[in-house]
Task: structure prediction
Amino acid sequence: MTAARKIIIDTDPGQDDAVAILLALASPDDLDVLGITAVAGNVPLPLTEKNARIVCELAGKPNTRVFAGCAAPLARPLVTAEHVHGKTGLDGPPMVDPTMPLEDQHAVDFIIETLRQEASGTVTLCPLGPLTNIATAFQRAPDIIDRVAAIVLMGGAYFEVGNITPAAEFNIYVDPEAAKIVFASGVDITVLPLDVTHHALTTQARVDAFKALGTQVGETVAAWTNFFERFDKEKYGSAGAPLHDPCVIAYLLWPDIFAGRHINVEIETDGTYTTGMTVADWWRVTDRPANALFIKDIDAEAFFTRLTDRLSRL
Ligand code: BDR
Ligand code: CA
Result:
């Protein structure tokens, strides 16, 4: 058996972040979660770090290390998404306050230290929110960039364009300067954009399957998805809501159910209407070098079946 892949989950929970964390913590044979680093995004930092701890406790993994990182984007005021995720970020079922501690170390210092300590090329970064923590670590310690095995992130869009503005996806929009630094870093990047996640839609049958697990995790995931569905159903007229962030962890576990292209992706930082846009050269109409594997397709049925099955382990 091969050793579990070492990952750091950088996140702004968010119900879909929470499901991603649960999926990772349910997969210890495949993924070794070295730490969870919280960033401001869906809700402010005091809530995202708290939510990360709530999720670890729900998973029955209170020894997971959770770190608080950057409270604001590199160069702009924070934009949040309570309209989607509710006031707490984890609205839906009532959640108990966590008792496990928050680590004292700043998330950025943890990322830097971990990449320096672990063998080069063995740690994968999994950003599920704005890229502020990752970009700050790269700026502060450029020596770590070559040591990153890969970055697999949720963010951006091409055919689906934007969800927070007509042109931009939320995670990239909140901190485009950070995204620019990450996409220019030369690290092996895989992007799970809205083009993929808008096909990973909850349906009544899929939510019922979470519930049918008959566990606290199953009940909670069903209640979370029911909560944020209401917004997406209204907005897109779709049958359910996209489970964005779990696609990142699913890609690490089951790359066979995804397909994409190596292309150039540039980040718009000062557009009049397009700030935060991922300008993805899907048709390869420029000679700009490829800097990311941009995923476009997912086998959604396999994704939900495997996700539900994995969650049954918690
Ligand atoms: C992304 O934005 C957040 O609201 C979700 O958690 C996800 O990471 C989708 O645009
Ligand atoms: Ca997120």
